[in-house]
Amino acid sequence: MYSENDEFIGEGSLVFTHQDSDYTIPNQRVYLSRMIVKEEHRNRGIGGIMLDYLIEKAQFIRLHIAFVRR
User: Fold this and answer.
1) 15: Cβ–Cβ under 8 A, 6 or more apart, which residues?
2) CB atoms within 10 A of CB 31
3) Which residues fall within 8 angstroms of residue 46, CB to CB, at 6 or more apart?
4) Burial of 24 (0-12, 13-18, 19+ CB in 10 A)
5) What is the pLDDT of residues 41-67, one digit of tens each?
6) Which H or E run includes 53?
7) pTM for this prediction
């Protein structure tokens, strides 16, 4: 979760298990989900900051992020 002055601004999460194997592979690949930034806070680079943080976390535990567009 990303916040400023105790206000919720956005969030993103890593999903470690999913029924569809295109999304995750146990102990190898995670799925990046729920990347949202409140509309009034967009175009400030917040989504990029959150994405970089989540990628670093996945790499720290030696996992790859699967990017799947819907």
Assistant:
1) 23, 24, 30, 31, 32, 33
2) 20
3) 2, 9, 10, 37
4) buried
5) 999 999 999 999 998 888 888 766 656
6) helix 46-60
7) 0.77
Place of tokens 């029924």: 19
Sign (positive or negative) of CA dihedral 40, 45, 47, 49: negative
Residue with tokens 């670093």: 56
Which one-letter amino acid corresponds to residue 69?
Answer: R
What residues have CB less than 8 Å from 38, skipping those under 6 apart? 8, 9, 10
pLDDT value of position 19: 85
pLDDT score recorded for residue 67: 60
Tens digits of residue pLDDT in 1-32: 899 999 999 999 988 888 888 788 888 888 88
Q: How many CB atoms lie within 10 A of CB 51?
A: 14
